[in-house]
Recover the amino acids of this structure.
């Protein structure tokens, strides 16, 4: 049984003015999230992803559909059962949402106080989490004395305090600089790997998905328009929206004026070479071209790491006999997709 199952979930808000239409923030979303997944939900602002995460943790009721967590539909669960389910869901936020009047130690302890843990149990658990997130020396500091990355580490520790089985991260790195983002993503990876916690990552940054999510759903206008293994979505996006997100990470061929400028700078016909770690390498392609005496040079692209797997998308300018070029490229072998860029 999946850990989280959304079936035809919709959320509509009342019209903003008399006689207007209801606003559908989430529209017929169906997703299955397996236990132990790091599941990414990506979309532009207004796509409905943040509303969706509030539905998953029961902060807002669904208009229609069901959200099953461990076999219980939170939309129809009694209040007591809903409270139990929500205790098993941790949440981290873009702006950290720390209590400014409390020290780091007392921020982390807060959900344990609410849940009725004894003082000794709170002290023990807070100590464990301070060590885990690397902030034992900041236990008595206040939030304003911490950097953004340190505040987010406190937020993660607080979210883990009550031993949740699910962690929801809503734009958890978008307020951080690149180096700090790397640190936080590595910490979330450790949370998933060491504790087996299912993580749902809400973001508009495709590089975050590439780093930590094993599966991803792409949202647009309240609907999920594409879902699948992260590597598959990166290497073979099926929708224009997914392809544009992928293009922010994978160095795809420029279009329009950028492509015209590339042609102007390089003599010959342009070919793209796409390869994965299941196929041949770029070195093999280049070796075959050189062996056949084909004159070429690399003009654009690169090799990217997606979930620890290789994906390359390169563009070469090729000069010489057309028949020889096509015969050589056709004989490169399986696992590589080579196509000429249309003029």
């Amino acid at each position: 049984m999946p850990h989280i199952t959304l079936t035809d979930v919709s959320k509509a808000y009342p019209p903003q003015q008399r006689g207007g239409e209801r606003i559908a923030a989430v529209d017929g979303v169906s997703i299955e999230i397996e236990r132990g997944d790091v599941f990414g939900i990506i979309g532009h602002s207004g796509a409905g992803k943040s509303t969706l995460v509030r539905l998953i943790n029961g902060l807002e009721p669904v208009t229609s559909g069901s959200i099953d967590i461990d076999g219980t539909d939170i939309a129809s669960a009694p209040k007591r059962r809903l409270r139990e389910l929500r205790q098993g869901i941790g949440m981290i936020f873009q702006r950290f949402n720390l209590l400014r009047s409390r020290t780091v130690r007392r921020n982390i302890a807060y959900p344990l106080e609410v849940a009725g843990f004894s003082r000794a149990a709170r002290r023990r658990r807070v100590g464990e989490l301070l060590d885990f997130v690397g902030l034992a020396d900041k236990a008595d500091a206040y939030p304003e004395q911490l950097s953004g990355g340190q505040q987010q580490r406190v937020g993660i520790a607080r979210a883990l305090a009550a031993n949740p089985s699910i962690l929801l991260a809503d734009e958890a790195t978008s307020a951080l600089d690149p180096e700090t983002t790397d640190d936080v993503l590595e910490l979330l990876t450790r949370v998933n790997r060491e504790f087996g916690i299912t993580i749902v990552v809400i973001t508009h940054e495709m590089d975050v998905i590439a780093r930590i999510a094993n599966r991803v759903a792409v949202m647009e206008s309240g609907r999920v328009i594409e879902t699948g293994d992260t590597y598959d979505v990166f290497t073979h996006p099926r929708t224009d929206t997914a392809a544009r997100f992928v293009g922010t990470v994978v160095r795809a061929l420029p279009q329009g004026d950028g492509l015209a400028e590339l042609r102007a700078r390089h003599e010959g016909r342009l070919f793209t070479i796409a390869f994965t770690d299941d196929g041949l390498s770029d070195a093999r392609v280049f070796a075959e071209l050189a062996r056949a005496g084909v004159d070429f040079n690399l003009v654009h692209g690169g090799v990217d790491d997606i979930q620890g797997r290789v994906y390359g998308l390169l563009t070469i300018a090729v000069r010489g006999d057309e028949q020889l070029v096509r015969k050589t490229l056709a004989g490169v072998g399986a696992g590589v997709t080579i196509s000429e860029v249309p003029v």
DSSP finds twelve helices and 14 strands in the chain. Residues 4-247 form a domain with the Rossmann fold fold (CATH 3.40.50.300).
